[in-house]
Design goal:
With 722 residues, this protein is α/β, with parallel strands linked by helices. The chain is 45% helix and 16% strand. It is built from 28 helices and 18 strands. The protein has a seven-stranded mixed sheet with strand order 14-13-12-15-16-18-17, sandwiched between helices. It is globular.
Length: 722
């Protein structure tokens, strides 16, 4: 094919020059500044002035340095120096492509929204020779995506738009380029850009010793990073691929391009290939406009969108969302059961590839169900799942399944077992959260899987083990949560007035820190409900008089209706999978005239040592999604929900007091991993967090007096159902 393309127009940053160190964030963290401190100053209006050429690069850096120094002192000045010193890294693959393009007679030009330093940076990286021209916004005084920027570059190249291929990592700039008339390609890698050029009829000679890029070869795709649930294993790989082709059409093209490859569509958004060497690859097919790096779980692909988010919040279910989600959950369980039957039939028939494809379908359905039930983070685009945001226990099950080779009988069984454990847990979660039970005949599935697994598997719904409330946490839980004497006295005084002679249920009793203050004041009965087996074991060992320990979830209390006078909890409902449903369940067990009492303790204003924990989290989770935090704002939603159901809430202050706290106490709690979110961290991540926390502690007062308020939110119950 003869190409009409005579020139290449290429973005610089994100294409030819990469910024793997995320220097603005790294500089801020290294100097003890808030994570976004440098970004907020560097990329506000001053950057607009610099990349329009109003300021020189040096003037822009001076202004950033001055502002950071004014706000943060010497640490701000040092952060500005670290940020300005990082000039990024050249991508050798893209530089090689541009050199080969020039050697082939194509005109090459950079089109970049940049400052006056860009040409010096090209020299610094040794890549000034890759371009015939540089259209820099600081020089041409217009920025992408304005049409004038493209027109200025085309004037330098002396070529019409229809004879130029353009690539940029910004979709907005791609849209604008198409409007101007360029052949535009959303950049993901040099190899994918070369494939795009090949589709336009451009053939580039390979560099010496470098094999040519074959237009007929399969697509490269985007691999998940290490640590992701779908990261490559020895015999199994996963790739994310943006394509407008249906799976069946893409499968036919792949098979035609490589006759040694076996290709099987897996559904509307996936297919599997097995190469001549037996290596299995699962392809996740993404729609046009999707970002394969974000879908594959690369943290840097999400950095800009998530940079200003301090925590990820799980919104509680509402009756409307629960009603809408229940049929979808049942549908996913039905598809899972059917895929398991197909898997067993393929294995019995000696077709390992078909069995492997059905296994992948099981994995996809369970991932979608887990995402539906946990809802930790918005997906990259509507209707997809983001498995890197799933809870640790779910992610570990998916990872364990992916590490086995499903093309052998024993490997298939090994890959299936963790998925069946996940299935049990998700069935239980669907029952607890959505009040739905699957209509699929699971006993029949148990029978058909028995030959593969050398015995019938257990597919009964089972509550998942809590991956955060571990025995290690239970052992140090109370050590770092000292109960101030004024709080203990206030709780005891309130209990003596309000709980005497009552049948009491405490939700989320933990190791008994609050239970000790409430149970010893004459209740007729006291049942302490705790879902964590590790916490419940400590509570039983305490052998508190008159206290019955009940190991159960607040969403499904093994207690009779109308059997309690008081249900009390201390900041426990906010950790339930569905706080609103937990509140409804508490009302179910209350007698008419009974009360739901929610105890809240919080500082009367900002906590002066809160920066220590914040610094720990930023550093410990620097390479992955932030931990899921729950806040006391959940209680406001519970109060509103109860009011909607005809149960108004009274807000009563039980005590106001001050408690002495030290930076060493905050560091000690972190060192002992006394907070639940720490138990999803690796040891190296924990060490990074501790190093950052110690730096922050050195900047804060060694000792402070923190004012606290203890409140009781009291909701009377009646016989109406919510």
């Amino acid at each position: 094919m003869t190409s009409s393309v005579r020139g290449l127009l290429v973005d610089v940053d994100g294409v030819l020059r990469l910024w793997p160190r995320r220097s603005a964030i790294k500089a801020a963290l290294e100097c003890g500044l808030p994570e976004q401190a440098v970004r907020k100053v560097a990329y506000d209006g001053g950057f607009d002035l610099a990349h329009h050429g109003v300021w020189s690069h040096e003037q822009w850096v001076e202004q950033v340095t001055a502002r950071l120094s004014e706000e943060f002192g010497a640490a701000g000045k040092r952060a500005a120096e670290l940020w300005a010193a990082d000039r990024g890294d050249a991508d050798p693959a893209m530089a090689d492509l541009l050199r080969r393009a020039r050697a082939a007679g194509l005109v090459t030009c950079a089109l970049t929204n940049n400052t006056t330093i860009v040409e010096a940076d090209l020299e610094l990286h040794g890549i000034a020779d890759v371009f015939d021209h540089v259209a820099n916004s600081a020089e041409i005084r217009v920025t992408k995506p304005a049409p004038g920027a493209y027109e200025a570059a085309l004037a330098l190249m002396d070529l019409p738009a229809g004879q130029v291929a353009f690539t940029d990592d910004s979709r907005i700039n791609i849209t604008a380029a198409l409007h101007v008339g360029l052949h535009a390609h959303h950049y993901t890698s040099a190899e994918e850009f070369e494939r795009f050029l090949t589709s336009l009829g451009v053939t580039l000679r390979p560099a010496a010793g470098v094999p040519p890029v074959r237009a007929a070869a399969g697509p490269a795709g985007t691999a998940p990073p290490s640590g992701h649930a779908e990261a490559d294993a020895a015999a199994v790989a996963t790739r994310y691929l943006t394509t407008g082709l249906p799976p069946a059409v893409l499968a036919a093209r792949l098979a035609a391009n490589d006759p040694t490859m076996t290709v099987v569509p897996l559904g509307p958004d996936a297919l599997a290939t097995v190469g001549a060497g037996g290596a299995l690859t699962t392809w996740r097919l993404l729609p046009h406009g999707a970002d394969p790096r974000a879908a594959a779980g690369h943290v840097d692909a999400w950095a800009e969108g998530a940079g200003d988010v301090d925590a990820e919040h799980l919104p509680p279910w509402t009756p409307a969302t629960r009603t809408a989600a229940a049929p979808r959950a049942d549908d996913l369980l039905h598809h899972t059961g059917w895929a398991l039957h197909q898997l067993a039939a393929a294995d019995a028939g000696g077709d390992p590839l078909a069995a492997a494809t059905h296994l992948d379908a099981v994995r996809q359905y369970l991932t979608a169900l887990a995402t539906l039930l946990t809802r930790h983070q918005p997906a990259p685009w509507p209707g997809t799942t983001a498995s890197r945001y799933l809870p640790p226990a779910i992610r570990e099950a998916l990872t364990a399944s992916l590490r086995a080779d499903p093309t052998t009988h024993t490997g298939l069984a090994a890959a299936l077992r963790p998925l069946l454990g996940l299935l049990r847990h998700l069935r239980q979660m669907a029952q607890l959260v959505l009040d739905t039970t699957s209509s699929w005949p699971w006993p029949h599935t148990t029978a058909v899987l028995a030959p593969l697994l050398d015995g019938p598997p257990d597919l009964s719904a089972q509550a998942p083990e809590d991956p955060l409330y571990t025995p290690a946490l239970a052992a140090v839980y109370e050590r770092h949560r000292p109960l101030a004497l004024p709080m203990a006295d206030a709780l005891a005084s309130w209990a003596a007035k309000e709980l005497s002679g009552c049948d009491v249920v405490e939700l989320g009793a933990g190791t008994g820190r609050i239970t000790r203050q409430l149970a010893g004041h004459g209740p007729a009965s006291y049942r302490a409900v705790e879902p964590s087996s590790a916490m419940a074991a400590h509570l039983r060992d305490a052998n508190l008089p008159g206290v019955e320990v009940v190991e159960a979830d607040a969403l499904l209390l093994p207690l009779p209706a109308l059997g309690a006078d008081v249900v009390v909890e201390h900041e426990a409902l906010q950790f339930a999978a569905d706080p609103l449903l937990a509140a409804d369940e508490a009302l179910r067990v209350l007698r008419p005239g009974g009360r739901l009492v929610r105890l809240l303790l919080h500082p009367a204003g900002p906590h002066p040592l809160a920066g220590i924990d914040a610094a720990y989290r930023r550093a410990a989770f620097a390479d992955g999604p932030r931990p899921l935090f729950f806040g006391k704002g959940t209680d406001q939603r519970i109060t509103a929900h109860l009011a909607d159901c005809g149960h108004p809430t009274q807000d009563r202050t039980l005590a106001e007091f001050s408690q002495h706290r030290t930076a060493e106490q905050a560091l000690g709690a972190l060192a002992d991993r006394a907070w639940p979110y720490q138990h999803q961290l690796t040891d190296p991540a924990h060490r990074d967090g501790m190093a950052a926390a110690r730096l922050e502690a050195a900047r804060l007062p060694a000792s402070v007096s923190v004012p606290y308020v203890l409140r009781a939110l009291i909701t009377p119950a009646d016989q109406e159902e919510c």
